[in-house]
Amino acid sequence: MKKIKFTIVAFVALSLGLNSCIEHEVIPAPVPMVDLTCHFQGTINGTDVELTENVVGYYCNTSKAKILLPPPSLSSAVYYSEILSAQTPLSIKVGLGSVMWDMSAASDPTLSLFNAFHTTNTTPVFSNGGASGFEVTYKDATGTSWVSKQNSTNFQDVTFSAISQESDTAGDYSKFTCNFECYVYHTNPVTLVEDSIRIQAAEYKGWFKR
Q1: CB neighbours (10 Å) of residue 170?
Q2: Does an H or E element contain 19, and which?
Q3: For 137, what's the count of Cα atoms within 13 Å in the CB-facing half-sphere?
Q4: How many other C-beta atoms can be found within 10 angstroms of the C-beta atom of residue 116?
């Protein structure tokens, strides 16, 4: 009888010991992510065009072009947002610049500079390369690039609205809606003749990333 009692006590002790060694899984709290969506619609060369994120592989790609200069010269950055797809050449890219800052403190402008630049440039002028304003690049179904230009004699207009700055663990963003109308140009590399295409009633919803 004593042997049976000892066996039971030993089993209970062993069970308690095993339970105390079990590691409970710790589930981390969800990390908030900025809701980012991209969409384009407009009339290009007389044809209605709509590009929607996650349809036919379309997604938004952001990039920036920086010119870093040592102080006392100011560095500059132009920000780009493009809706494109690996399944088709057709794409739209808009650019806006330039943010100016002193690179002695950091290799990128501060968040406050980034935010202030975008919230105050709601009606920029057209500028080649976006160096001092707005630029749009349209890539047609053949992969040919058509680009706006600052000295165009044709009507062109652009307005940014619904601008909001948001951040998450992946970065800082300036979300926007951009409405524009302009002509975009392409020079035939063989004949050197310049052709143009008209973009009308265009609306681009996207974001720039700092």
Answers
A1: 11
A2: helix 2-21
A3: 17
A4: 14
Q: How confident is the model over 10-62, as pLDDT tens digits?
A: 444 445 454 555 566 667 656 678 999 999 999 999 999 999 999 999 999 99
Task: Tell me if residue 14 falls in helix, strand or coil.
Answer: helix
Render each residue's pLDDT in the chain as its tens digit; 210 residues. Answer: 444 444 444 444 445 454 555 566 667 656 678 999 999 999 999 999 999 999 999 999 999 999 999 999 999 999 999 999 999 999 999 999 999 999 998 999 999 999 999 999 999 999 999 999 999 999 999 999 999 999 999 999 999 999 999 999 999 999 999 999 999 999 999 999 999 999 999 999 999 999
DSSP, collapsed to helix, strand or coil, labels residue 176 as strand
Question: Residue 108 has which token pair?
Answer: 């990128």
13 token code pair: 């002790």
DSSP class of residue 123 equals: S
Is the separation of the CB atoms in 83 and 60 below 8 Å? yes
H/E element holding 42? strand 39-44
How many other β-carbons are positioned within 10 Å of the β-carbon of residue 91?
19
Q: By C-alpha distance, which of 144, 45, 124, 9 is closest to 78? A: 124
Angle at 194 between CA 189 and CA 147, to 5 degrees: 90
Separation in Å, CA 182 to CA 11, 44, 83, 150, 177: 83, 10, 18, 10, 16
